[in-house]
UniProtKB/TrEMBL annotation:
Species of the source: Paraburkholderia phenazinium
Protein name: Monosaccharide ABC transporter ATP-binding protein, CUT2 family
GO CC annotation: plasma membrane
PANTHER family documented for this protein: CARBOHYDRATE TRANSPORT ATP-BINDING PROTEIN MG119-RELATED, D-ALLOSE IMPORT ATP-BINDING PROTEIN ALSA-RELATED
Matching CDD domains: ABC_Carb_Monos_I, ABC_Carb_Monos_II
Subcellular location: Cell membrane
Record keywords: ATP-binding, Cell inner membrane, Cell membrane, Membrane, Nucleotide-binding, Repeat, Sugar transport, Translocase, Transport
Record field: transmembrane: none
Domain (ABC transporter) ranges: 10-252, 259-512
Membrane protein topology class: Peripheral membrane protein
Coiled-coil residue spans: none
InterPro entries in the cross-refs: AAA+_ATPase (IPR003593), ABC_carbohydrate_import_ATPase (IPR050107), ABC_transporter-like_ATP-bd (IPR003439), ABC_transporter-like_CS (IPR017871), P-loop_NTPase (IPR027417)
């Protein structure tokens, strides 16, 4: 299966016959080689085995079968620390940082420079800061104070700190698992520049991503996993994106989706003048029963903050949220002072951070599904395991969650299946309004289409869906209308028949241009008054 372009070169790392079985096999008979100075794209649907293979190479998981060699020596790391000592590093989706320590301390946690000739446990703070600045400069973090607590940074900057941490010291193999999922365009460019530097130094990279345009940009070869087996290893430029997708899912996926016949009814949710400081400023819109309403905009435009205001997770300064009490009735204002109020009124929020805010990763599917539905599975304050498992099994079947059953630990599931667990929890409550914040971030194309199909089914039941997404093509594919946020304001509302990508992008920049014009006018007036 593997291309012969590198046959004459020694492999930095090779795996042969690698397999892994949990409740059922998740990897079987995988054979791959990594070569110095190249990036290998590793892709496949969620649940295909990408992360499991990476964790085996990175020393986090022991294989059930197979062998590995690093350079020309047997390689069987018993831990991540042992793998790192041998030069095999991994940047995971779940960040390995301590939020209560500074950036510098996180970067050099296991090798803090000590002060004094006798080194009585004192940390050389000056040297620590200097070393941290040098490491941070590699990934474009020069503007951040090394003494800043990691918990005070945004998720994108935290991701870059994690990448910088793994570039310190000897690095022979670097695995990047969905490294750009939380990064801005500028941070992505900086990461790709660093990848090119690493390749020039002879580092072998494994780049895991569902963003096929990224794979084409950074990788020389691509390896495709499907259902735990390696189905193709080929030169990156020998396959088109459509061919890679077909290999991933085992079937062709078009750029159109049939969401079924829907009867879009009267307004079910109405938002008027919703405001919180400058992050959300006088936003108004309505969503009808059976409608999928998209919210587009640039990072920082206020999209997530708008969802949190509707859900009561953040206090509003002004504005109202109204709901229709019965189908066809006019929406009337409701009081939502907390998420508890929102849930009681039938509003659900599927957060963009499913791992940090949406799931209890060490707990089974059953516990996660019942988390928002305790009343339906408990008797006299005690959870009835039989009822809990039955509720979870119903959602597993309805959502087509790939698992061994209600007892499987959620942290063992793929990202797409974890997202289905979050959605299944809310469906078990029969919520009428569903707020989706980046529902397909970090999941593969096959799982995306499963989520789209689910959204269509929910809309056909007469629910109102609001979908926030950074992927404009995704919104144009599934939505009936799209509202565009820009600098905290909703600068445009577009019907499906009337939108174009250019018009949507223009609206996304409109608020920032208006703000710049206003600031320029203020500066001009102030300058005139001083002259």
């Amino acid at each position: 299966m593997e291309s012969t372009a590198h046959d004459a070169l020694p492999a930095v790392l090779s795996v042969t016959g690698i397999g892994k079985t949990y409740a059922e096999p998740v990897l079987a008979d995988v054979a791959l080689s990594l070569f110095a100075g190249e990036a290998l794209a590793l892709t496949g649907e969620n649940g295909a085995g990408k992360s499991t293979l990476s964790k085996i190479v990175g020393g986090l998981v022991a294989p059930s079968a197979g062998t590995m060699r690093l350079a020309d020596a047997p390689y069987a790391p018993a831990s991540r620390t042992e793998a790192e000592a041998l030069g095999v590093r991994m940047v995971m989706q779940e960040l390995n940082l301590l939020p209560t320590l500074s950036v510098a301390e996180n970067l050099f946690l296991n090798r803090l420079p000590q002060a004094g000739a006798l080194r009585f446990g004192w940390i050389d703070r000056r040297r620590l800061r200097e070393d941290a600045r040098a490491a941070m400069a590699q990934v474009g973090l020069e503007a951040i104070d090394p003494d800043t607590l990691v918990g005070e940074l945004g998720i994108g900057h935290q991701q870059m700190v994690e990448i910088a941490r793994n570039l310190i010291g000897d690095c022979r193999v670097l695995i990047l698992d969905e490294p750009t999922a939380m990064l801005t365009a500028r941070e992505v460019d900086l990461l790709f520049e660093q990848i090119e530097r690493l390749k020039s130094r002879g580092v072998a990279l494994v780049y895991i991503s569902h963003r096929l345009e990224e794979l084409a940009r950074v990788a020389e070869r691509v390896a495709v996993l499907r259902d735990g087996r390696l189905v193709k290893v080929e030169a990156m430029n020998a396959l088109t994106s459509d061919q890679i997708v077909t290999l991933m899912v085992g079937r062709e996926l078009g750029e159109r989706i049939d969401l079924g016949v829907r009867n879009i009814g009267a307004p079910l949710l109405k938002v008027e003048g919703l405001t919180r400081g400058t992050v959300v400023n006088d936003v108004s819109f309505e969503v009808r029963a059976g409608e999928i309403f998209g919210v587009s905009g640039l990072i920082g435009a206020g999209r997530t903050e708008l969802m949190r205001l509707i859900f009561g997770a953040d206090p509003k300064d002004s504005g109202t949220v109204s709901l229709a009490a019965t189908p066809g009735a006019a929406p009337t204002p409701v009081q939502i002072a907390s998420p508890t109020d929102a849930v009681r009124l039938g509003i659900a929020l599927i957060t963009e951070d499913r791992k940090g805010e949406g799931l209890l990763l060490p707990q089974p599917i059953a516990a996660n599904v019942s988390l928002g539905n305790i009343g339906s599975v408990a008797r006299h304050g005690v959870v009835d395991a039989k009822r809990e498992n039955a509720l979870a099994q119903k959602q597993i079947e309805a959502m087509r969650i790939r698992s061994s059953g209600p007892g499987q630990i959620v942290g063992e599931l793929s990202g797409g299946n974890q997202q289905k667990v979050v959605i299944g929890r809310w469906l078990a409550r029969d919520c009428r309004v569903l707020l989706f914040d980046e529902p397909t971030r970090g999941i593969d194309v096959g799982a995306k289409f499963d989520i789209y199909g689910l959204m269509g089914a929910l809309a056909r039941e007469g629910r109102a869906l609001v979908v926030v997404s950074s992927d404009l093509r995704e919104l144009m594919l599934i939505c009936d209308r799209i509202g565009v946020m820009s600098a905290g304001r909703m600068t445009g509302l577009f019907e499906r028949a009337g939108w174009t990508q250019d018009a949507l992008l223009a609206a996304a920049f409109a608020g920032y241009r208006a703000r710049e014009t206003l600031l320029h006018a203020v500066d001009t007036n102030e300058a005139g008054s001083l002259s």
